[in-house]
Design a protein that fits this description.
Peroxisomal Thiolase, Chain A, domain 1; 2 domains; 13 strands
């Protein structure tokens, strides 16, 4: 299989994390101090810190910051400042790897769902990075964990429609600003065990050279599933919603959804050489392996990314993609993620021979 000249190419993919590293053991200790005396079922739930498959995570603020009484304004200010820094870091790396400067970029697709910024993060960093005044900005909000994969699909279609243009896709999420000490719920405690902060960026353009060709992208949204995942909003900030168990839902539903998307392009699950999946948690990874008839342990990049960074929402799948690219992509890789909607998003990538 060779790269097709008239397909959009993935030219580069890069990642970035904030400076504050926390071990899962320390996170569990802080959670114990914060919740155990106020939540009767905590001793049962605290096991998620060990079973999550996570060893460490990176946070936008030092751990002590999260133990203060925080309102929406403080949380969102931390989001804006941290998201700008991570955007610049990830985008700069992607540009260097692509052999480009910021003024070579024609379109910026910015994916984020963990805070609000108007003007957007892309506008706030435009002068710092050196974007042209005519750069087109495309903000994408509300896709959660599926956002990074969807962002690549959107970026590829924009690059396809404008031959010769360079499209920069940046996914940046600061899940930690939604850590809540006031919410004594199972969902909130599980969130403190799973989520971290990070960013990823890639450059896409129509042409003959690149790491891989974007073959196609696709989506599947299940009816009646709005309550599976999302945010609640109150004066204190965002609050995580997990209304149903995601691993069993994924195991029962992901294969038919992906088969439907592949079928529209004359392909089946057996035509995929490597599934690169968003690692929502250890149980989600195992559920995906079962659903896709993969041997246990096949999703190795997913487990290693989860262990080292936790679930960073939208960028996480691109961290997996980065590892897959560095190891060497097989002929066809299907990059997948699930997010609020409840939606599955995928992008098919063809590697050079």
């Amino acid at each position: 299989m060779t790269l097709v000249p008239d397909q959009v190419k993935l030219v580069s993919v890069s990642t970035a994390v904030p400076p504050n590293l926390i071990s899962q053991r320390d996170a569990a200790s802080v959670a114990h101090e914060s919740f155990s005396a106020r939540y009767d079922d905590f001793e049962r739930l605290v096991k998620v810190f060990e079973s999550s498959g996570i060893l460490k995570r990176y946070l936008v603020r030092p751990l002590d910051w999260y133990l203060q009484p925080l309102g929406w304004s403080e949380r969102n200010a931390a989001y804006v400042e941290g998201a700008c820094a991570l955007f610049v870091d990830a985008a700069s790396r992607a540009l260097v790897d692509a052999g480009l400067s910021a003024d070579d970029i024609d379109t910026v697709v910015t994916v984020s769902s963990t805070g609000l910024a108007t003007p957007g993060i892309d506008a706030r960093v435009a002068e710092r990075l050196g974007f042209r005044s005519d750069v087109e900005r495309v903000p994408v909000f509300g896709l959660g964990c599926a956002g990074g994969v969807t962002g690549i699909g959107i970026g590829a279609r924009l690059a396809q429609s404008r031959p010769g243009s360079n499209v920069l896709v940046v996914a940046v999420e600061l899940c930690s600003v939604a850590f809540r000490l006031d919410k004594l719920t199972k969902e909130n405690i599980v969130a403190t065990a799973l989520f971290g902060d990070g960013a990823a960026a890639c450059v896409l353009r129509l042409g003959e050279t690149g790491l891989a060709s974007v073959e196609f992208s696709g989506h599947h949204t299940w009816p009646g599933t709005l309550d599976i995942m999302g945010w609640s909003v109150d004066d204190t900030g965002l609050g995580v919603i997990f209304d149903r168990a995601i691993p069993p839902f994924a195991e029962a539903n992901i294969a038919p959804a992906l088969q439907s998307i592949l079928g529209r392009h004359g392909l089946g699950l057996d035509d995929v050489d490597r599934f690169a999946c968003h690692p929502g948690g250890a149980k989600v990874i195992t559920a995906l392996e079962r659903a896709l008839s993969l041997d246990q342990g096949t999703l190795d990049h997913e487990r290693s990314v989860l262990a080292e960074y936790g679930n960073m929402s939208a960028p996480t799948a691109l961290f997996v993609l980065d590892r897959a690219v560095k190891k060497g992509l097989p002929p066809r890789t299907l990059l997948t993620a699930m997010g609020p909607g409840f939606t599955a998003s995928c992008v098919s990538l063809q590697a050079a021979a």
